[in-house]
Automatic annotation (TrEMBL):
Residue ranges annotated for the Ribosomal RNA adenine methylase transferase N-terminal domain, each copy included: 34-206
Residue stretches in coiled coil: none
Predominant place of localization: cytoplasm
Alphabetical UniProt keywords: Cytoplasm, Methyltransferase, RNA-binding, rRNA processing, S-adenosyl-L-methionine, Transferase
Record-linked HAMAP family: 16SrRNA_methyltr_A
Gene from which this protein is expressed: rsmA
Catalytic reaction equation(s): adenosine(1518)/adenosine(1519) in 16S rRNA + 4 S-adenosyl-L-methionine = N(6)-dimethyladenosine(1518)/N(6)-dimethyladenosine(1519) in 16S rRNA + 4 S-adenosyl-L-homocysteine + 4 H(+)
Organism encoding this protein: Candidatus Planktophila limnetica
NCBIfam families: ksgA
Lineage, broadest ranks: Bacteria, Bacillati, Actinomycetota, Actinomycetes, Candidatus Nanopelagicales
Catalytic activity, EC: 2.1.1.182
Protein name as annotated: Ribosomal RNA small subunit methyltransferase A
Keyword rRNA-binding tagged: no
Amino acid sequence: MTLLGAAQIRELAEELGIKPAKSLGQNFVIDANVCRKIVRIAGVTSSDVALEIGPGLGSLTLALLEEAKSVIAVEIDERLATRLPQTVETHNQSTAAFRVIHQDALQLQSLPESPTVLVANLPYNVSVPVLLRMLEIFPTLKSGVVMVQAEVADRLAAKPGTKEYGIPSVKAAWWADLGGAGSISRSVFWPVPGVDSKLVSFTRHQPLGDEELRKKVFILIDAAFAQRRKMLRSALSSIYGSSGAAEEVLNKAGIDPTLRGESLLVNDFCTIARLGF
Ligand code: SAM
């Protein structure tokens, strides 16, 4: 199958009258090798139902269709969503294995088939909420690779004690083990973005707890990182009513109340949450 190159991307955009919108993070990949590389890193196989958020003009979609059993693409821009089936057909690929849904991924509730792998060049302004939402609402998603702004990739894959470690790192770690999977040159995009890009891969791990626990853990995470410089006993005081009460719970959990949120693993937040509030 032939994939899309720079010339085809520009032609398609012209045909559709698309001026890439910064507000929708529309930077299209014009390098077929990069698309194949992303699919390879994701380890997509012929038994996978791949979910792609933001297929755009179809660069990565066509590479996914070479390997996956089926591809479900969710695109917010109606012109792009409407044109995709034709692009898939033109590139000698049966449309049987391909479905496109015209929707904001953040509003997505369900899909026609349970996805097993997420592979996407995510719209950068909503990359973290989109990733967290997909992990939350599709428990069948076992793994994936997403391309995001370099700084966001560093935050998602960060380990405790680093300056990159924060809310995205701990919330994503509730669902999965994440790691950096390489940098992507700015020159593979049209238009060339003003930021660097990196790949992040993830593998879902065993659930750390039920939905009730997750909600509590996420409330604790938000509070712990709301003011990064605060010690936990003071950062969590609004949840427990006072810093004294927060200190008591932290002591019970075996966690030093003078630590900051940036020192805690997601499992530590689970230990605190299990003590209730
Ligand atoms: N996958 C294509 C590629 O690699 O060339 C396009 C990637 S581009 C970075 C992001 C795409 O996400 C655009 O097509 C944009 O219209 C779409 N998009 C932006 N916000 C979205 C949202 N909330 N839900 C679904 N798609 C969105």
